[in-house]
Structure formats: C-alpha cells, structure tokens
Amino acid sequence: MTQAMARRDVLAGLAGLGLLPLADAPLAWAQPLAGLPDEPLIVAAAGRRGGTLRMLISAARDVQYMVVYGYARLLAFGPDFDLAPDILKSVEVEGEREFRFRLRAGHRWSDGAPFTTEDFRYWWEDVANDPALSPAGPPIELQNRGVLPEVEILSPLEIVFRWPDPNPRFLPALAGPRPLFLYRPAHYLKAFHARHADGEALAAEVAAQRLSGWAALHNRRDNLHRFDNPDLPTLQPWRPMTAPPARRFVMERNPHFHRVDGAGVQLPYIDRVELQLADQRLFPAKAIAGETDLQARGLGFPDAAVLRAGETRGGYRLALWREGVGSTVALYPNLNAADPLWRGLLRDARLRRALSLGIDRPGINAALFLNLARGANNTVLPGSPLYTHELAHLHAAYNPDRAELLLDEAGLTRTGPGWRTLPDGRIAELVVETAGESETMTDILLLIAESWRRLGLRLLVKASERSVLRNRVYAGEALLSAWPGFDLGLATPDMPPDMLAPVRQDMLCWPKWGQYHETRGTAGEPVDLPEAARLMELWEVWSTAKDRDERAEIWRTMLAIHADQQFTIGTVSDVLQPVVVSRRLEGVPASAVYAWTPTAFFGVYRPDQFWFREDGA
After folding, report:
1. What is the enclosing helix (H) or strand (E) of 152?
2. Quick check: is 614 in a domain?
3. 103, 216, 369, 519: which could form a disulfide with 373 (CB 3.0–4.6 Å)?
4. Nearest Cα to 394, choosing from 449, 454, 352?
5. pLDDT tens column, 135-154
6. 1 lies in some domain
7. How far apart are CA 330 and CA 325, in angstroms?
C-alpha cells in the first residue's frame, strides 16, 4: 500500500478479491434491501439462504473463532493476500502517513444502531486513551516509532489517521485474524463508562456484578474479540445469542451485515451457526456420526484415514488442505531462560544448530506423514514469494556427526556412550514444554527425543494448560517449548516481519525482549544479543523502505539470519489438514491453505458465502 488508493484503485482491488464494484446509479435489487447499508459491498457469489451450520469446539472460549471465521474487517485480505476495503467503502493513503477512511452510508450495527465515526472517536478517546481502561495506552500497533497518530473526524462517515512518518504496519493490522479494532459500539458501551453514564445507575450495576469498579464492568462488556456477550452489537456476519456457561452456543444472522450478492441477496446465506462443546478426542468420531457440517479445528493428519473411511456414513466429503504455518511443530529455545548457565548455552548458535542437525526430519515425515510433508526449517513456505530452498534447509539436514562436533564445541561433553553433561556437571537434560493439545506434536517430540538420545541429550516432554505454559516461558522457567511455527508461512513483502524480530512477548524464543518492546521499556529486558539486535534494526528499516523490492530484500535478510542462527527450530511443514465438509454445504474450497494468518483459517474464503443445498445428495 505505497500509493493512494483512489476510486479506480479500490475498484481494482475489489475485482481482485472476486468482488463486484458498485454502480454509480442505484441498482434494482431482486429483493428489498432492508437492513443493508445504502452502499453495500457486492460480491460475486450465488447461493440460497437458510440452514444451520454445526461445528464442534473443545472449550467455551473457542466461540471467539467466530470472529476469525466471520472475517468482517475494515480492510480484508483476498486469496492473493492483497488488501481491499471490506467494512470500509474506501481508503485513501498518502505517503503511508495519512489514511483517510470512508464508511458506508447507512451501515448499522447488528442491533440496528448507526455505525459512524462516533464509534471510532469513542474507542480512541474514551477507551484507548483512558488510563482506567487502557493503562498502557493505545495498542502497540499504533505506536509508530513511539509516536501516536493524530486522529481527525471529518464527518460522520470520514475519519483520518495521520502520522509524521510512514506507518506501513497500520493497514495489515486491521486485516488480521485478531484485528486491531479501531471502533466500538459507542451507543452500547457509554452506559458503562464513567464519563457518559448516570453515576448512580453505573455504581448500582458495578455492585450488582460484584466488580471492583466501572472500568472492570466496561472491560467485561467490551468483548469484540471474545464474542461472548450477546448484548454487545457486532459487525460480523453472525451475532452471538448464547452467554457462557453453556454446552451449545448459537450464532444468528446479523440482519445488518454489509455484504450482498449480485442478485441482491444479503449475506450470510446461512441462518445460524451452532457450536457444540465436546471432548476434542471425540471430534473424529462425532464427524463420522454426522454431528458437524464444517470441521478442521481439533482434527489432524493422523485422523485423515479414519475420516476418509467414514465419508459415506457421516454424509460429508473430506478435503485435505495444506497447513500454512512455517513448521507444523517448532522448538523454541528460550534465550531469556532464568537459569544463567542454560541461558548462556541456549544463546550459543552452535548448540541451536546442533539441535536442528540432530533431528531426523525424513524419519518424522515417513513415520507420521507418509512422506507427504516436507522436512525444513521454520520459515516461509514455497507458496510465499520470499521462499528460497537454501534457507529452508540450512542446518536442517539430518547430520548427527556434525551435531556431535557442535555439541562438543558448545561445552556439552561426554566421555562415553552415556548422557552429555553441562559445564557444571549436570546431565544435559532438556524439558520441552507443550500445551498438551496435539497428539501429532507429542509424536514428533518423541521421535526427536530418540534422535537426540543418540547425541547424548535427554529430552523430556512436559504438558500443561496453554496459559500456564506461556507464563512459564515468559518467566524464563521453561527452557524449551514446542508450538506451531511462524503464522506467516505465506508472507509477502508488504506484511510486517513482526515474527522475525523480538517485538512480541508471545514469540516464545525471546519473551522478555518482546515484552520490553511492547511495554516501551517498562517491563522485560532490552535486547542484548547482537544477531537479535540486528533483527530489530531491520524491522525498523522495513518501515521506511521506499518500495516493495526493498521490503522484500529486508525480509530475505531477516529470514537468512533466522535460518543461520536457528532461533527457532523447525521440523516438517506443508502437512495436510483434514477438513470435514457436509455434502450439502457449498462454497467451501476443495483445496486451500489452512492457517491463522493471513487466511484466518476459513475467513479469507468467506464463510458468509457458504450455503446449503436443499437436497441431501
């Protein structure tokens, strides 16, 4: 997005997404447009309305995935991963410093209240910049070199975000699976804000909810991401109707959704979505029993054979998509480990390279994936324009002899066939910590443990709940963790390289450095490893790159540093992801990429355009 998106550019972007431009003159719709904006987004789709889509979830918090799947965004990625307006009617960009948004006239929240720039103003002034609600200030995505934007409301339908320097991270942040929401339903939330609400009524509600104050009440009601407050208006294709706790969560069509097909039929086509809580271990059996219409979450490659055999009985077809993560399982050495000896060892690139060279990736691929996956580093995938075969395989070929030499050089010695020891005499024992949610991850780790045993390294697997795991990594208590690889396996040069630099606490190889950046130095630790500091420099330079070619070169340099340094250690990628699709459900791609970002799992493929046939064929 390096130049202004004038009207013709916006329309070209819509065409690239398979979306039809609006005519300048009013259109004659096939049916009344009650509930639609005056200027809806017209999409190239054809289906029929009706039906209930059933899906399985393993925890009540998983209702938040409906915001991911629904994928209504100010701007959205298309299948080619270019950005185009979605909720917005248009965006004009000047020098990547000024971003002028225009809303769709007549657009409404799911409860019928107008969606206007007052909803942006409320979030910016009364939420993001209110110390009671946002003690750390506005989100880090809006901190461009430490400078917040100037926000100017031009009219009820136009707003400008302006920075003194280019901010190319801004627009991609609005299109992510967990987007930066720049707005809130002001008409609803003002009743819970001390600046706007009746004081006595607000105090009574705080007391009734047994909360510490009005800010806690406001935060509880303000759940656009969590999607668990049926009273909170939404712009997503479906609105939540069930409050937790529950075993079944119902979502109903948003009567004011902004998309419409070429025949004038308002989307989404599907009336209701039902999320049924169940034990994840039972998901394959429940799919075979016909209890889900669309399911990928909770299913893995080991389930593919039994799911294929159950297609007729379950009334579904099995699609096999490709995972879009950099590695289906990656190891994250904690460079901020609390143990000073281990911290020094894990910061030694020779040890990290030895760990990678000691993994028998061909053996993992053969044993678990029928040689249908690809052994490689945790890096971008062949579908990315940034991919190179050399970096995908640097230090990633199985070479136990070379690994033995590097371990010796790093100070992990042994005098015989037994376990290696650390410089202080302790056995070289690595505990890899996981969330315990993936049988495939456990199987891969057990195979790695066998490979490393031959090198004299003892690997133990410890599972804990994901929040416990993250807290242990953040505190430096976990030395090594296992998690899926880079989300942006299909990165393009215009996507921010945040996963490659220590700018996020949730990057498990350097949580304290990421926390330091996210909190602007109030917590965590400053980067003190030269190679990581270089990544920070490149991350900053990406923001000022003058064109796409320069950004691509920065990306490739950062990827090269990662491959050489093995800050994360990949295993296999391009693993097949089973997707169960009801035989009555149309619009779901037969083949696609399944990833958190940029595809938002199903989101980029537009579930609002999925539809049910009346027949059961």
Report:
1. strand 150-155
2. no
3. 369
4. 352
5. 989 998 898 888 999 999 99
6. no
7. 10
- pLDDT at residue 30 is higher than 70: no
pLDDT at position 33 is 56
Please tell me the distance from the alpha carbon of residue 129 to that of residue 118, in angstroms, as a whole number: 15
CA-based end-to-end distance of the chain? 45
User: Residue range 311-316: average pLDDT?
Assistant: 97
Do 375 and 545 touch, CB atoms closer than 8 A? no
Determine the Cα–Cα distance for residues 120 and 100; give it in Å rounded to an integer: 13
Q: Phi/psi at 373 (nearest 5 deg)?
A: -100, -165
**Nearest one of 124, 281, 268, 303 to 606, comparing CA atoms:** 268
* Cβ-proximal residues to 601 (8 Å cutoff; 6+ apart), any chain: 65, 68, 69, 177, 296, 297, 594, 595
Identify the pLDDT of residue 14: 35
Token reading at 136? 């750390």
pLDDT, one tens digit per residue, over 160-217 is 999 999 999 999 999 999 999 999 999 999 999 999 999 999 999 999 999 999 999 9
Q: How confident is the model over 473-486, as pLDDT tens digits?
A: 999 999 999 999 99
Among residues 240, 270, 289, the one where a domain terminates is 240
From the CB of residue 494, how many other CB atoms can be counted at a distance below 10 Å?
19
Let me know: does 88 contact 103? Beta carbons within 8 Å: yes
298 vs 291: CA distance, rounded Å:
14
Number of domains in the chain: 2
Give yes or no: residues 225 and 355 share one domain: no
**Whole-angstrom Cα distance, residue 71 to residue 73?**
6
Residue 11: which pLDDT band, with cuts at 50, 70 and 90? Answer: very low
CB 186 within 8 A of CB 196: no
Parallel, antiparallel or unpaired: strands 480-483 and 429-434: parallel
Give the per-residue pLDDT at 615. 67
Point out the domain boundary residue: 195, 210, 240: 240
253 DSSP β-pair partners: 238
Residue 282 lies in a domain: no
CA distance 266 to 268: 6
Strands 593-594 and 585-586: unpaired
Which helix or strand (DSSP H or E) is residue 99 part of? strand 98-102
pLDDT at 491 over 50: yes
Residue at 545 is within a domain: yes
Sequence-ordered list of residues with C-beta below 8 angstroms from that of 572, at least 6 positions apart, any chain:
327, 328, 329, 361, 364, 365, 369, 373, 374, 375, 376, 444
d(Cα 72, Cα 607) in Å, to the nearest integer?
10
CB count in 10 Å sphere of residue 446: 11
Taking alpha carbons only, the member of 295, 274, 269, 285 closest to residue 581 is 295
Distance CA 98, CA 93 (A): 6
Residues 249-254, mean pLDDT to the nearest whole number: 98
Residue 60 sits in which domain range? 7-240
Q: What is the DSSP letter of 151?
A: E
Three-class SS state of 286: helix
